[in-house]
Amino acid sequence: MKITYVDTSILVGMLFEEKEAHKWKRFLNTKDDTVSSALVEAELLAAAAREKVDLALAFSFLESVTLLHPDRSLKEEYTKVFSIGYIRGADACHLASALFLDPEAKTVSFLTADTQQRHIAAKLGFETPSL
Known about the structure:
Blueprint: E1 3-6, H1 8-15, H2 21-29, E2 34-37, H3 39-50, H4 55-60, E3 65-68, H5 75-84, H6 89-101, E4 108-111, H7 115-124
Helix pairs in contact: 1-2, 1-3, 5-6
């Protein structure tokens, strides 16, 4: 079974009903196993609070997402991410978390709306669906 790692940009886009949101929703509804870093919770709720969106609605977007809680430092994964190029810290956290799940990037696809993050994910070897 293929795992789909979902970045915050996708969930925020769905919450705010951005242009591509219907495609992302349809895509994620076909997946059995969707995961993300525990960071996604804080990022999604912060975006909801900033835009004065009900937090209960924001939480509902996390119901089908398994949150990762690595039991060790992601130093090795961060080193691999930053060996590809510069990326913001939160984006690096998501990529490192995906590498924690799948160090060879063979069984995890990485879904993001962020162009730079998608580029680095692809360079790491992840399948990066563009919808």
